[in-house]
Amino acid sequence: MTGVGREPQYEAFADAFAEHARDGFYNAHYDRPACLSLLGDVAGRHVLDVGCGPGWYAAELVSRGARVSAFDLSPRMVELTTAQAPDADVRVHDAAEPLGWLPDGSVDLALWALGIEYVDDRVCALRELRRVLRPEGALVLSRLHPTGDWLRHGGSYFTTRVIEEDWAAGWHLRYWLAPLEQTCEELHEAGFLIERLLEPRPAPTAEVLSPDAYALLAGEPRGFLAIRAVPRPGATT
């Protein structure tokens, strides 16, 4: 298999995923706090939510005073986001395609949470995000932690490859497994500088929800990581 393709993989279970992600340990108490902390104060700022999923991020960003544009490849996810964040500008769009409706330098912040693994040409997509960002803007992205991926799947840590698997809920997915170095190099090639990198721990209040998951993620790199990257001065798109 040479890539993951452009099918909206989450379309088949969008509603189930929305319920899962609403208060789920990994999404609500692990990924979202990390990404929102890296975004910082969004009040009055134009935030682009890339691969917005069911809209939990978009709704939170709107509640914090942001002007939100959002898109997802899954039409059902777009419907769910529109319901969660009716004040956001939400549309069906593929992250692998140009963001033709957004002018150069029109976005203050871009968020790409747990989605970069589903794009084949990640450098091209990242370059387009850099194009729409203001020079003083920032991109926040989260991804599966590559060490956790490697511990689960084995093989060479440094081999970038496509994984195809069924998750616990029976959801069949294909995504790119890549070392951290690869993600850093792709950001560099796309014209970004990494400003911060977090290996999050679960929110302390989440321990009562799942003591086992809390203990695992508090002590091992088994979940996600989050990066804040800024446009590199002088880099061309």
Molecular structure report:
This protein is of the alpha/beta class and 237 residues long. It has one domain: Rossmann fold. It is built from eight helices and nine strands. It has a seven-stranded mixed β-sheet with strand order 3-2-1-4-5-9-8, with helices on both faces. Helix 1 packs across helix 2. The longest helix has 15 residues. The model has no long low-confidence stretch (mean pLDDT 95). GO terms for molecular function: S-adenosylmethionine-dependent methyltransferase activity. Keywords: Methyltransferase, Transferase. It comes from Cellulomonas algicola. This is Methyltransferase. Pfam families: Methyltransf_11.
Topology of this protein?
Elements: H1 14-23, H2 25-39, E1 46-50, H3 56-63, E2 67-72, H4 75-84, E3 89-92, E4 107-113, H5 122-132, E5 133-144, H6 146-153, E6 161-166, E7 172-177, H7 180-189, E8 192-198, H8 211-219, E9 224-231
Parallel strand pairs: 1-2, 1-4, 2-3, 4-5
Antiparallel strand pairs: 5-9, 6-7, 8-9
